[in-house]
Amino acid sequence: MDVRRRLTLLAVTIAATPLILGGCTADRKDATGSASGRAPDPAVTVTPADRAKDVPVSAEVGTSVSHGKVTGVKLTDDKGKQVAGEPREDGSSWVPSTPLENGRTYTAEVTATGKKGRTAVGRTTFTTSPKSTRQAIKSTLYFTGNQTYGTAMPVTVAFDPPIPKEARATVQRRLFVKTDPPQPGTWSWVGDGKQVEYRAPDFWKPGTKISVRSGLAGLPIGKEFIGDDDRRSTSKIGRQVALEIDNATKQMSVLQDGKLVRKIPVSMGKPSTPTSSGKMVIMEKHDFTTFDTRGSADPYVVDVEDAQRLTWGGEFIHAAPWSEGDQGHINVSHGCTNVSVTAADWLMGITKVGDLVTIKGTEVQLDQGNGFTAWNVSWDEFAKGSALPVPPGLKPAPTLSPGHPGAVAGGSSPAPAPSASGG
């Protein structure tokens, strides 16, 4: 009995020993297949696909990385020349600084670095398409370089023909805005795609530098069109000036940094040709111009001085010596805001393109898109017009200063084509 018991104990000991040893020596792997305690190596996926052909000249180098981050991108052409560029803020791709050339071969090399300095390199070689025979959509960037704009100046791009709804996200992704100091915003499409505008939740801070790139050259837009050009501009924001015009009093209040500096009598559009009520932005300024409405129901040709455009449809603030007796009392214009010669000259000296103009109490409301109308709706409504997700952290605008009254609603969008009319 004692012998059998000793044999049994010995068998248990021998059988248990391999299990104990096995527990000390086996490789336990995590869900990624890496040995326990060791970080997985980085992995890189690069686009366009290797050996891809007919790649648009608007192409970006897609950089998808797991277990690491991109630490270097090198793009060279078939002559060995390196292409300049920079990554998107979200790290999804690397964007060449200029359009690629048609019918050329490029090689992209993307380096990713993981924990403990481990690296991985992804490579791809692709060839761009020949020059496209598609019709180019004409784009116009209304943000000129080396200027000083008012604090309400939106970045505006207009298109002819309009951008179809299904292509707006593609176009918007190629519109870039950088601000220094940072003041993030979003793009918003107006009406049927003839215009897209960019602004932040609140007005630009004075002194802000804004750099814009409309990188549309060669971009496929739907099945029929391509983008026309690649444009850049950088300008700054000046001091804050706002004009408030009240039809009830026939007075214009001029405010600087929220403080009233002058009141000016005005005469606006008569009932048959009323001035629009809404929040507008000064679009352009002319020391001298001619209003020519021949072909309209009320044709006339008149030369005017010190004219400041507010709408595509032809509403201006301008000198009107013929109506000085009416200013402050009765509306007699064809839709413009008439002021005296002296007041118009003074206004030209204090205002800038991009200054906010608020008109209230007239018979009609401003159509959304009839001018730079980014402030004519609330921030929430504006952000709904983006074809891409709005950047996180952007919230509705705070309560505005007395110089910036609340937004009013807008309607449909006319074509963003300047009219020479006025009155």
Automatic annotation (TrEMBL):
The keyword S-adenosyl-L-methionine does not apply. Residues 401-423 have a biased composition (Low complexity). Residues 30-103, 388-423 are annotated as: Disordered. PROSITE patterns: LD_TPASE (PS52029), PROKAR_LIPOPROTEIN (PS51257). GO terms for cellular component: extracellular region. Residues 241-360 form the L,D-TPase catalytic domain. Pfam families: Big_10 (PF17964), YkuD (PF03734). Residues 94-103 have a biased composition (Polar residues). One of its GO terms (molecular function) is peptidoglycan L,D-transpeptidase activity. The active site is at residues 318, 336. This is L,D-transpeptidase-like protein. It comes from Micromonospora palomenae.
